Structures are given as C-alpha cells and as structure tokens.
Amino acid sequence: MPRLPTPLTLPAGAPTDAELRRARRRRRRSESTAAWAFVMPSVLVILGLSVLPVIWSLLLSFQADDLVTPSRWVGLQNYHALSQDPNFRQAVRNTLIYTALYVPLSMALGLVLALALNRRIRLVGLYRTLIFVPFVISATAQGVLFSFILDPEFGAANSVLHALHIPAQGFLTDPGQALYVLVAISLWSGTGFCLVVYLAALQDVPPELLEAGRLDGAGRRHLLRHVVLPTLTPVNVFLLVWQVIESLQVFDLVYVTTKGGPLGSTTVIVYFIWEMAFQNFTAGYGAAAAYVLAVALLVLAAGTRLLRRRGTDRLEGATR
Amino acid sequence: MTATSAPARAVPDSDTPSAAPAGGRARRLLPFSAWHLALAPLALLFAIPLVWLLLSSVMSDAEINRFPPALWPSHIDLSGYRYVLGNAMFPRWFANSLIVSVSAVASNLVFGALGGYAFARMRFAGSRILLVTMLATMAIPFQLTMIPTFLVMKRLGLIDSLGALIVPSLVTPFAVFLLRQFFLSLPRELEEAAWIDGCSRLRVLWSVVLPLSRPALSTVAVLTFLSTWNDLTWPLIAINHDVHYTLQLGLTTFQGQHHTKWSAVMAGNVVTVLPVLLAFLGAQKSFIQSITSSGLKG
User: Fold this and answer.
1) Measured between beta carbons, which residues in chain A are less than 8 angstroms from residue B127?
2) Mean pLDDT of the residues in chain B
3) pTM
4) Distance in angstroms (rounded) separating the CA atoms of residues B274 and B192
5) Which of A9, A292, B230, B261 is deepest in the core (most CB within 10 A)?
6) How many beta-carbon contacts under 8 Å exist across A and B?
7) CA nearest to B62 within chain A
C-alpha cells in the first residue's frame, strides 16, 4: 500500500500537516499492535515448534546425545557413521522401493478409475465413496485390520487362498513379501485420494474444448489423448509430489504391522529415525538421519518448483 | 471457474442417466452400463476389508479362530464390544482422542482466523518476513522437528500428559495460510462498510468475514480433525503412561497384548474408526471438497 500524499493546501481550521502525520502514525501503530496480537499465538507455536527445532535438530546432528545426560560435540561423525551404516542403507532402499511402487500405481489406478467414473451412470457416487472411504481410516486401524486379515494362521486371506488351492502365504511375516504387502495396503487406502483429485480435475476440463474436438470428428481416444490428459498436467505434478512426500515419510503403518521386520525388510527411513532417537537413545544420530531425509524432500520440492515454472499454465478453476 | 452448468459435464453425485452420455452410442441399448461389470468388482475389492472389519467385530472368537474362519457370523456376538468397553482404558482413550482432536480443531479455527486476518488485511511491521517464514515452515517434515519438539515439551514439563499432544497442534501454518488466502479473495467493500460504521477489527472479523468464510473454515476443521484423530507418531513419542493414550496408540498396544482375542481387537478397531467414518459419511461433500481443494492449491 503506497502512502497517501499529504495535501499541499489546507482549508483554514483543518489540522496541520504535523498533526495529520501524527494521527496517521498513531493509527498505524495501533493497527500494528492489534495485528501483532492477532498473529502472536501462531507465531509462538510455529516459531517455537518449527523454526527453533529445525536449528536444534541441526545442532543435535553434530552431537552425541541420549536425551538424558549432557551431550558431546562430535562434528560430522554422525553423518559419516550414517554413510557407513548398513541398516540405514537398507532403510533407504526399502523406502525407495516402497515409493517407486506405491506412487505410480496409486496414480495410475486413481486416474483409470476417475476416467471410468467421470460419466453419467448409476451408482457413480456409491463407487466413489467405497473407493475413497479407506483414505479417512487411520494407518493404525489399517495396520491392525490387515494384521488380522493377513494373519498366516487365522487370517481370512489364507483361508480364501486355501479354498482356491493356493498354498498359504506368510504375508507380513515373510521377509520377501512384507514390503510388497505394505505397498498393497497403502494402495487400498491411498488410491481413493488420487481418484477424487483426478475427478475434481476432470470436472474442470472445459466442455467447449471437448465439444470442439467432437465437432472436428475426434474419436474418444483422441479426445482423451489430446484434450483431457494435457489439461491434467498440473494435477499430475501435484499428485506426484504429494504422493512421493507421503511415501518417503511412511511410518505409522510400518510400526503397527511389522515394527520394521521381519529381518529389517520393512525398516523405512522414518522408522529408522524413530528407532535411533527413541529406542536406542542416540538422538544425535537420529537427527542426522532426519536431516538427510529433509534435504532429500527439499531437493524434490525445489526440483518440481522448477518443473512447474517451465510447465504449462495452472488450470483455471482447479482450486475449487 | 469454468461454466457452472455445462450439459456435457458429468456430475459425480447424479444418479440420473443422461440423455446423451459422454461418448456412448451403443451403450444405451444395454439395460445397464457395461462399465458396472468392471467397476463393481473393483469397488467391492475396496469395500471387503471394511465389511470384514465389521463382521469380525460381532463374531465369537470361536468362529474367528476356526480354520477356515466363518465368513459370516452365525449370530451377533457382542462379547468383543463388551470386553473393549468394559476395559476401563478404552473409553478413557476415546475421551483423550476426543479432547485432543476437538481442542486442535477449535484452536486452529480461532488462531488460524486471527492470524490469517492479520496477514490478509492489516499492515504491521515484519508481516512479510513472518508470512514467508510461516510458508517455509510448511515444507519442514515432522520427522525433522520431532526430536527437539520432544525436548521442548520435556522442558515445559508436558511430556506424558495430554498437554504434550495439544500444544503442538494448537495452530498450524496451513490453517493460517489457507484462511489468509480465503480472506484475500473476499471483496474489501463489505469490511470497509463495517469499518466506517466504527466496528473494531475483531467485530468485523467475527460478524462480517467469518460468516462468509464457511467453506474455508470447514476445510480447516475437517483436515485438522482428520490428522489429529488419526495420528500415531507423536502420541507414540510423547506419551508413556497408558492413562494418556489416544485411541490409535491404545489400539496398537491393545493388539499387542490381546492378539488372540481378535473379536475384541476388531471391536476396538471399529470404535477407533467409527467417529471419522461417521463424520465422513455425514459430510461427504465437504470432506471431499476439503481434501481436493487444499490439495490442488498446491
């Protein structure tokens, strides 16, 4: 807001320049005070529990700290140890496998379902609800439910396999399967999110574009390829980033179902961080691992920023 | 915004087959759309685990532990629920979850609206830098701050109490920012009229701005409730004593201790998901709108 220029001439009896300026300053000061009062709670909580901890984490990562006794300064030793730690390497690998499977699958499935549901047939609302509902269920409840369904001895899954004459599976107790089973559970709950986001975007494909395409004699497949899919580009970028960030941070489901086992086959990065900080009482080491994760996420976010800038214009109306 | 009532546009909630379905000529000849053949089994696949959750919670343990387990309860057996609700802890955990979630929703609405309004409509020293800082903190993953947050809470003497769960979720930068964006989109004239009538800022916010901001407020409420009710990570770190457990934390430990009493574990699971499920089914539209709108704002 530019400051208003003060009038040069004043009718007699009006307040002088200096008085006006003083009044304006007073008004602004009172506004500033009020505004500060308004933002104070947010500032306190957000600075106190975000900005301060970020700096603290960095300091911690250069220290050996057990959360109880005074800490020792160890410089870059934590980071060096991390780079040598086979368990951390396994956690990174598991996380990347999980991400590489879950993200494209959830997006592809969500898109196919959205295209199928984006038409006027009966029960569309019901289908959408059934597919989306798992998304609102907590990872804890999902984990408990699937531990039960996939219980190797009592689980419903193995009895279904038994009826189909397929040998019983170990599921979450089998080191070769557990991570893929976790991906499947995440797909069950995460696909609905991609579906509703894609559906919302499809609602925003300008009908006149489709109409124009139809008049030009474009077939359904053509319309899809050259009209519908290009308008989904910003949504694709958003979902890609969102889902990758979500899956790099997966923790609750792992904690509830496998505790990182069997044989470390489902230890993911955040589980590793939690274990180091709150189970082994090596907070400095955990903080170093957390910094590695955070930097990776930051690079990812910055990278997509650049992509977005180069990419197409934002979809109009996509924000509804 | 695109045209609001374009005939070619599919309305997901509409149950009426349109006269001209998007790209289907022969399809009208079938008694039902061929799409159902593909969609119905898929939708069922998504529904089955939840159906099984409900069914197994009203089965007897004898039926569950048979091999193969019964696929349908022979009678409604509520012993699982009796066990869970008779277990003094479960109701307590439920109350804890409710206290934490409701206070998070209320305080995010209040502080988010105050902060958002100040950033949207008031000029004050340092507002830009504060806003940029807040935006930047949205990009900080929780894992980076959880260890020091634990230490901060410990210094404040809040660890192992509900306070440790309430304080970090008092207000999120997301709430402040989302409300600020919405307030900016409102026409200024309305507020200026109230200004001229000599209303205070709080008064303007309360009686002019907030009534117009229902969609944004409900988005904040829905997403705050969902994330606090469903969270496990932070309670796991901050709470040791089972008196202060939330439902999620309680359910996890309960499963660890009673993994042979599956009917009780599943009954507890139903109790854990029911509030969110009911909230969702009751306000499905606003739920889905919240999740997509907040998402697509990027």
Assistant:
1) 35, 39
2) 85
3) 0.86
4) 45
5) B230
6) 337
7) A154
What are the residue ranges in chain A where pLDDT is below 50?
Answer: 1, 312-320
Partner residue opposite B115 with nearest CB, options A38, A113, A277: A38
Facing residue for B137 by CB, picked from A36, A39, A46 = A46
Q: CA-to-CA distance for B169 and B42, rounded, in angstroms? A: 37
Query: At which residue do the structure tokens 């104070």 appear?
Result: A40
Residue whose tokens read 């699958």: A105
Q: Per the CB < 8 Å rule, is A297 touching B15?
A: no
| Closest CB to B248 among A140, A235, A245 | A140
SS3 B14: coil
Q: How far apart are the first and last CA of chain A?
A: 29
Q: How far is CA B280 from CA B162, B163, B223, B285, B294, in A?
A: 26, 27, 11, 9, 17
A32/B125 CB distance under 8 A: yes
Element of type H or E holding A112: helix A86-117
Element (H, E) at A74: none
Q: How confident is the model at residue B36 (pLDDT cuts 50, 70, 90)?
A: confident
Nearest-CA distance A87 → chain B (Å)? 18
**pLDDT tens by residue, B260-289:** 788 899 999 999 999 999 999 888 888 888
Three-class DSSP category at A73? strand
Encode pLDDT of B227-265 as tens digits: 999 999 999 999 999 999 999 999 999 998 887 788 899
- Give bridge partners of residue A73 from the DSSP assignment: A63
Instruction: Show residues of chain B in contact with A52, CB under 8 Å.
Output: 148, 152
Q: Provide mean pLDDT across the span B182-197.
A: 89
List, in order, residues 6 or more apart from A302 with CB less than 8 Å away.
none
* Cα gap A138→B248, rounded to integer Å: 8
For residue B271, give both structure tokens: 């109790």
